[in-house]
Amino acid sequence: MKNSQLKKIEVLVLEKIAVTKEKIIKYTELCKPIPPQNSIGRISRMDAINNKSVTEAALRQAKKEMYALDIIKKKINDNDFGQCIKCRKQIPFERLLLVPESIYCVNCAK
Q1: Does a structural domain hold residue 7?
Q2: C-alpha angle with apex 88: 62 to 7, nearest 5 degrees?
Q3: How many domains is the chain built from?
Q4: What is the end-to-end Cα distance of the chain in Å, rounded?
Q5: pLDDT per residue rounded down to tens, the chain (110 residues)
Q6: Which end of the chain is more exposed for a tag (fewer CB within 10 A), N or C?
Q7: Range of the structural domain that residue 39 is part of
Q8: What pTM, to 2 d.p., does this model score?
Q9: Is 94 contained in some domain?
Q10: Cα(38)–Cα(73) distance, rounded to whole angstroms?
C-alpha cells in the first residue's frame, strides 16, 4: 500500500476515533438511571426504560468500534497492514476507506 493511501486511512481512523469518543460520552450520559424523584407517568417511565436499553445497545456498539479503531491505529504502520488475516491478500483500498477496521477482504468476510 502506498504511503499516501496509508496517510488517508490514518487520518480517517483518527477522525472516526474522535466521533466515536463523542458518541460514547453522549450515550453514557443518556444511559444514566432516571432518578425516582422525577415524577413521570407510568407510560413515560416505560418509554424511558425502553429508550435506555436502545441507548445501551448503541453504547456497546460504539465501544466495540472504538476498540477495533484503537487496534487499527496501532497497526497502521505494520508491514502487513491491509492484508486479509484469512487469505493474506491485500484488502482493497476503497474497502479500507469505508471500513478502516476491516481485517478481512470482501470474499473472506462472507
Answers
A1: yes
A2: 55
A3: 1
A4: 23
A5: 788 899 999 999 999 999 999 999 999 998 887 666 655 666 677 787 788 889 999 999 999 999 999 999 999 888 888 899 999 999 999 999 999 888 999 999 88
A6: C
A7: 3-80
A8: 0.78
A9: no
A10: 43
